[in-house]
Amino acid sequence: MTGDQLPQHALDTLTRGHCPVCEQRGFIIGPQGGAAINIECAFLDCRARFNVVMFGGRCLMAQEIECEAQGGSVWPSAPASAGEGSGHSGSFS
Description:
Helix content: under 10%
Structural class: mainly beta
Strand content: 25-35%
Largest sheet: 4 strands, antiparallel
Shape: globular
Distance between the termini: 24 Å
Oligomer: single chain
Number of strands: 4
């Protein structure tokens, strides 16, 4: 479900740089504003997205947000499809 605040164990997982959905390590950085940053799991079979607030190396708050497959917007850092330019992907881990 998207929109609900994630429980503490999921915040701890994000703090370690792992996706709370698939447990893989690594994120692609998405849009950001204020104290919040959107991140997307870098694992191609997952791609879960989260709106997170980090401070002092810890994830203080997070909620899952719609991924592209669920109707979420395309991010500028999304991997390019075959035949497109390479684009730029940031990494959050």
